[in-house]
Amino acid sequence: MRTLTYQTLSDKRACKDQLEAFRALFGESVDITPELCAIHAATFHWKWAAGRLLSPAALAEYERARAPALAEYRHANAAAVAEYIGARAPALAEYRRANAASEYERANAVAWAKYERAVATAWAEYQRARAPALAKYERANAAAWAEYGRAVATAWADAYINDMK
């Protein structure tokens, strides 16, 4: 176990929100554990902490530990993005068709009003059609990002604890 202090973070020029979060959660110091860091994975900027608080050797070990988690996050996110894009494609194509046709035909205020209605209707339909896919993507992305955050936080804690500057 190793202790991290508010003063160390301040000396290393941590940003105001990170200093405030640290002090609110831990006061002036905290004993670092992988479990504690995993609990606060979404609270702290681990990449910043790694770059400012770890020795070069510990930073290299952290990066080696972080790489598989980042690859897994990117894989999960890519699959979710692809599914989202596929699910929204028909609705987006219809929206674009309605938008292009209406813009082309507008010649006066009546046509412009018709365009506005057509676009608004198409956009609303697009939003409705993509909502389930977007929600599924956001859930998948959030889960993958949270898992990545826990892995990064734990890797940082292990590197920080074992860092013998």
How would you describe this protein?
By secondary structure, the chain is mainly alpha-helical. The chain has one domain (2-162). It has helices spanning 6-11, 16-26, 34-39, 46-53, 56-105, 109-162; strands at residues 2-5, 29-32. Strands 1-2 form a two-stranded antiparallel ribbon. Helix 4 (46-53) packs parallel to helix 6. The longest helix has 54 residues, at 109-162. It is elongated and about 70 Å long.
Features:
two-stranded antiparallel ribbon, mainly alpha, 82% helix, 2 strands, 6 helices, elongated, 165 residues
Task: Give the secondary structure arrangement, pairings included.
Elements: E1 2-5, H1 6-11, H2 16-26, E2 29-32, H3 34-39, H4 46-53, H5 56-105, H6 109-162
Antiparallel strand pairs: 1-2
Helix pairs in contact: 4-6, 5-6
Our estimate of the beta-strand percent is under 5%
Mean pLDDT: 87
Low-confidence stretches: none
In what order do the strands lie side by side in the largest sheet? 1-2
